[in-house]
Amino acid sequence: MAENYESNLPTLVCSLSEPRKELQGTRDCYVSYLIVTRSTLPSFPKSEIKIRRRFSDFTKLHEIISRMYQDCIVPPLPGKQRLEYIKGGRFSDEFISRRASLLNRYLQRCSSHPVLHSSPHFIAFLSNSNWNNYVKLTIQPKLNATSKLEDLSDAFLNAFTKLREQKEEYAQQKEHIQQITSGIVNMESILQRLSKLERVLEQNYHELSDQFGKLMAMNGISDVSLDEMQLALRGTRTEFAGLADNSHSLLDALKDIEAYTLAYRDLLKRRDQKQLDVEALEDFLVKLNKEKEKLLNDKPSGLNFMKTVNDLRGINHEESLRKQMEQVDTEINTVEQAIQEATEVSMLFDKRVNEEAQFFNAVRQAEMVDVMRKYAKLHVQFFSAIKDIWEINKQEP
Amino acid sequence: MSFDLENEDTRLSSETVSILGTVNSSSGSYVEYEVHYKGHSVWRRYSDFVSVRTILCRIYPVLIVPPIPEKQSLLSYAKKPVTAKRDTKLLRRRSVLLQLFLGQCLKHPILSADVLFQSFLSQNIPWHAILSAESASLQHPQKEALRVPPLKTVDSDPYADIRPMMPLIMSGTSEYVQSDSVSSITNETGSSSTSSPMPKSGSNPLDSAPDSKSSDGIDCSDLKQTAREIKTLKNLLRNDFEKAIQKFLSSLNKLENCLSKTGTLFHSMTSVQEIPSSHLYHIVANTFESSGLFTTNLNEELSISLYEYVVQSAQLAASAANVFKYRELKLRQRALIHDLLVQEVNITEGSGTTNVQRNNAHRPTAYPQRRSSLFGRLQHAFHDILDTDSSLLGKVPTRFTRGELERMLEAVNEDCKVIDAQLEDELTFYEGCQKEQWEKIASAVQEGLYQWATTNLTCWQRTQRELDDLTAELNHETDINADEQD
């Protein structure tokens, strides 16, 4: 799925395969996956690198990217627990193969992303033999607990604040996302129902072939064609079983696209955040200006309590007033500057969001087509096999 | 409406029968099937078929008469309150099975030669008219069948050689034989010919006592085995097999529903604004809809060629089982009469018995008495005859004379000979029918599934191609975009 840009644009193509169980038998057993990368990027150490990574390496990469590239739609990582309901737990072949295909999709998305594919962290992930070290040295200091707390508190504070200005295009994008996710959910549910029916049919064919077997043992019906019929029914049953098994990987892919769409929604939330920041500052500025107004309009009057208090204290009222004005002015200046910065940030972010949205929509649609292609291929194989089974039978007189 | 039904009968290719279609009667209240035979068509309704089969079964209890589709049960009426004449599926089903019935009957040498059956096929008059005409000339054959005819017929009785001499009208509780039939034995004694040996001349009927070998040399235990196997087959088919098929067909039904719903879902998603997605959903929607249609076709096909034919096969086995049962009953009758005769002989030869003693003679129970459930149809006939001759009520004799018993035993022996002579042919006929039937079933299933697979394959292949094209389009666009980003 790696997009092929123009040849003079540096490319990065990677693929994931060959899951292997490491340290089998010990308590620290884990599964590693082979990643092969070919790249013409100047920052890439060699033109081709092969490296093995395990799932926790992926999670660290994901954490880094999520923090560092807030203005990107970060591809989601397959959840740790999500596939665990499969029999056999996390070391069963089925689980491993499904996880492998999901991790491959993750890599494809990163490697085709205009920003992420040249990220030094991503490149390090693909090439650095001591990933853990890299993580510790380069990134860890920045990932300290306080910054987490700050993010949290910020998020909390503004969680219930609504945007003052609902920009039309982002509202539209949100609606679009809603449409996409509900469509995917519907697709998933009906394809799951189909898959269940396929399993039931498998059972039916099994029973039919048994019944035909019993029939053959009866006299008067000892017919050659029944023997083949039974075999054909068994064969059909196997095909149905295969179809139902393979449909799983496609349902996984659909869920994955759904998760990717949610990452897009998260980006929009972050964009809203930036806008909120600007608006919060602007509101603060308004407040400050009002205060300034108040101070300016402060005239000596007999009823002025503060003046009386200050006189009592022996503070020069005009002097304190002047000092207050100075403070407010400084604050106003800071805030105005902050507003300017924040607005710039927000506008930049908006631009990035639009770029990301464009990339995301293209990728999502391509992925969806790909899912359907694989589904079609599966069915072509299935029906072709069944046709062969019953064609052989047909040739009997 | 007409159906495309081809009769694959090759043995009597000049005498194939087919049901060309159905038509509403002139009054519009029932449906008639057009039976085409030897170039002519007659129109018969379903109840005519029921009637002719009932008659054939009664006249020829020795023959395996092929089954016809069952009547609508109240339950199925309740499920689907559509009258038979409107339900196209039912009409099709019946047409197919009725044609099968006629075809199988034609293959049977005796059934096909039957006068009544022939007129059913060729005389284009209403069936009830034929029946009344026939019965006038043959003295109510269906009831006559159970009277004992003259031991040697002078007038042509086409049923004579097959119709049993001895009626099987014995209920489990009494050993009385219908006095009417007894009186007809005594009445006809005078006209008996030399072909039927009288007890005094020639062979002693006591010699042909029930022993392990039947008169025709067919091994009894072998026959028992066959009878058992036929019963097992019937049970297997009717229970497990039918259930498995029903489950399968219902799964197909669910599958076709699900596929069409999937198609609808994808169709509803084509309204999305992005063109590639819309195109994608459109392609996928069509695929699922087509797939649903193919499954519907398969379901329709198999519900007749698999389900109905299997049921028919089970019914045929039931029919065969009935013949075996009849034979059983005949043998028992023979044994019973034999014992009575022995007893009678002993009584008369051990002289000096009074009538009282005779009346109090111990009635042997050679065989365990069975309840009337075994004799259902025949009991019905019993009541039939009773109805016509109410004067017989209460006049059933308690015993018979030795002479009577000897003649009865003769008649029963003749019957048993007839049965056994016919049995081997019947078995051949039965096995032939079953074999042909199952070959048909097998090939229909093969054809059906092959078609289903092929049509689906073509459809999904086309989808695959369209999706490949779509992918190429998308990639091309992305390349263009990438260029622009340069």
Strand residue percentage of chain A: 5-15%
Largest sheet, strands/sense/barrel of chain A: 3 strands, antiparallel
| Estimated helix fraction of chain A | 55-70%
Under the CATH scheme, which class of the largest domain in chain B? Answer: Mainly Alpha
Net shape of chain B: elongated
Proportion of residues in β-strands of chain B: under 5%
* Average pLDDT rating of chain A: 82
Rg of chain B, Å, rounded: 32 Å
Coarse structural class of chain A: mainly alpha
CATH topology of the largest domain in chain B: Substrate Binding Domain Of Dnak, Chain:A, Domain 2
Radius of gyration of chain A, CA atoms, in whole angstroms: 32 Å
Which strand order spans the largest sheet of chain B, edge to edge or round the barrel?
Answer: 1-2-3
Q: Return the average pLDDT of chain B rounded to an integer.
A: 71
- Strand runs of chain A, count: 3
Estimated helix fraction of chain B = 55-70%
- What is the chain-wise order of helices and strands of chain A? EEEHHHHHHHHH
Structural class of chain B: mainly alpha
The count of strands of chain B amounts to 3
What is the element string of chain B, with H for helices and E for strands? EEEHHHHHHHHHHHHH
Q: How many separate domains of chain A?
A: 2
Specify the oligomeric state. heterodimer
Structure, explained:
The complex is a heterodimer of chains A (397) and B (486). Chain A is 69% helix and 7% strand. In chain A, helix 1 runs parallel beside helix 4, helix 6 (168-216) runs antiparallel to helix 7 and helix 7 runs antiparallel to helix 9 (317-394). Chain A has helices spanning 55-68, 93-112, 120-127, 131-139, 145-159, 168-216, 224-296, 305-313, 317-394, and strands at residues 12-22, 30-39, 48-54. Chain A is elongated. Chain A has a 3-stranded antiparallel sheet. Chain A contains 9 helices and 3 strands. With 397 residues, chain A is mainly alpha-helical. Chain A starts with 11 loop residues before the first strand and ends with a helix. The longest helix of chain A has 78 residues, at 317-394. Chain A folds into 2 domains: 1-146, Phox-like domain (PX Domain, 2-Layer Sandwich); 161-397, Substrate Binding Domain Of Dnak, Chain:A, Domain 2. Chain B is mostly helical. Chain B has 2 domains: 1-152, PX Domain (2-Layer Sandwich); 179-486, Arfaptin homology (AH) domain/BAR domain (Substrate Binding Domain Of Dnak, Chain:A, Domain 2, Up-down Bundle). Chain B is built from 13 helices and 3 strands, in the order βββααααααααααααα. Chain B has a 3-stranded antiparallel sheet with strand order 1-2-3. In chain B, strand 2 and strand 3 form a beta hairpin. The model of chain B is unreliable at 1-14, 138-158, 169-218 and 352-397 (pLDDT under 50). The chains are: A mainly alpha (397), B mainly alpha (486).
